[in-house]
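Quick one: YCII-related domain-containing protein from Actinocrispum wychmicini, structure tokens please.
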Amino acid sequence: MRYMLMVYGCHREELPDAYDRINAYYKELRARGVYVAGDPLHLPDTATTVRVRSDETLITDGPFAETHEALGGYFVVDCAGLDEAIELASICPLAELGSIEIRPILEVAFG
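--- reply ---
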């Protein structure tokens, strides 16, 4: 089952040796054969939020919600189940500063 590990409330710059530690985490996910995708995101002040209400498109600069724990990046992993996803989130170095939200990916066939 695929899970998204969403990284909240931390910036790589705040973690000592961030690049090396995140790169080691990435290599661990690859070695276990669970890595599907992952990317860091730019800071929340670069976000644009789009809403459509009554056929009107509303565009707002910034993230949807004001929060100090904004989404900072993600990993998609293919795990045997939630227990493995929890274990992978717990060894992510970014969990030391913020939080990792785990969500199963809903498998839907489009097209």
